[in-house]
Specification:
The chain is α/β, with parallel strands linked by helices. Helix content is 50%, strand content 9%. Strands 1-2-3-4-5-6-7-8 form an 8-stranded parallel beta sheet, with helices on both faces. Helix 6 packs across helix 18.
Amino acid sequence: MPGSDSVYRELREKIAGMRVIDTHEHTKSERFRREEPFSPLALGYVGCDLCGAGASDPEMEAVENADKDPARAREVFLKYYPCTRTTGYGRSIARTLRGVFDIETLDERTYDLLWEKIRTGITPGFYERWFPEKLNIRAVILDSDNDEEYPGLFFHSLRQGKYFVLADSREDLEDLERKSGLSIHSAAQMRDAMWSYLEKLLISKPVVALKNPLAYNRSIYFERTTLADADRAFSLLFARKHAHHAASWIKTHHRSPDELLHLQNFLVHETVRFATEFNLAYQVHTGLQAGHSNEITDSRPTLLLNLFREYRKVPFVLFHGGFPYCREWGVLGRNFPNVYLDLCWMHIISPATCVQMLDEWLDYVPNNKIFGFGGDLHMAESVYGHLEQARDNIARALAVKVTRGDYDRKTALEIAENMLYHNPRRVFRLPLDEA
C-alpha cells in the first residue's frame, strides 16, 4: 500500500491544476497600486507577527506609518523577520518571495530589490493575466468599500452596512444622510436609508454577498430587538448638550456600544433580511481577528445561532475556520443546512491546524459545505504563496484520508474540486462553468 507521502505528491499534482474560486480578498485596484505603490510591509499580516514577536509600541507605530519614515519601518521589519519567517504567515510570504519575485532570502541586501519589483510590477491588465493564468483563479469575491474599477472576474461582497450599524454620533448620521440621500430621524428611517444605499450598490456592481465584519468592534451575538427599543437607542444620537453651530469647537460626542446595542442589533437583523430579499450570501468574520489585543471571545461562531435559526433561507458563510473554535465551527456546518464553512485565511493562520481539522471536519461535515480558499490579502502577488499553502494543506489532509482507507483517490480529488470551485460557485450563484 503506498505511503502517505507518495499519495500526497500524487494528489498535490492533480490539485495544482484545479480551478479555484477565491472567496475573500481585499485586493487594491491596479490604479491604486500604480499611484500608491506598496512596500514589502504589505506582503501579508506582517504587523500581526511583529507584535507577536515582541515589537514595542514605538516600533509598531513606525511600521504602521511606514510612509513617513520608510527606513525606520524597514529596520523594524528586518529586526524581527528571522523570528517571524517561520510562522504560517512567514512561510506564505517566503513562497511568494521565491515564486513571484525570485528572491530566496529577505535581508538588508534584498529588501530594496524587492521593493523595486513590487513598485514596478503592476502594469495595465496585470490582474486579468495574474489571477486566471498564473493562479488558475476563475473568480474573486472582493471585500472592499472603494468604487474602483476591477476586471470582470471580480465579484463584490458589500461591507457597507457597517457604516450604519456602527454609527455612534450625530455627525455619523449626517454622513449617512449624504451617502443615502435620505433624512434619518428614527431607527426605521435609518433602516430605510441603509436599504436604499445598499440597493444602489447592487445596481452599480456585481454583488454576490453581504459581509459582517463586526467581530472587530463588538460581540457577534445579535439579539433580536424591537423597533421601539432600537428607536430609544437611536434617540441618544441626538441627545447632546451643545447646538450644531458649536460643532466646529466642541468635540463630537460619541455614544458607547452598550448604549447603542439595541440599535446595532436591530440593524444587523435588517442586513440579514436584506440578504434574504436579494438572494445574497451572508459572510461573517468568526474566530481570530487581525491585529493585536482583540477580544477573541467576541468572535465565537456559536454566538450566531439565533441568526441561523431565524433566517433559514440565507446561506451564512462563516470565515477563517472559526480559529481557535474550530470544532464548534465545523459542527455548525454539520447541524445547519444554511451554514457554510470558508477556509479563507485559515491556511496561513496555522497550516498544521488546517490539515488536522480538515481531516476531522470531513468526518462529520458533508463536503458540499466547505469552501477551500480565500486569500484575505490586499496585495495580489501575495495570493500566490497563500494559494500554494492551501493546495498543500488540502492535499495533505486528503492523503491521510486515502492512506487510512477512508476513501479512494477519485473521491479525494472530487472533494478537493468541490471545495476549491463547485461549492463557492453554487452558493454565490456565480455565472461560471458548472462542469
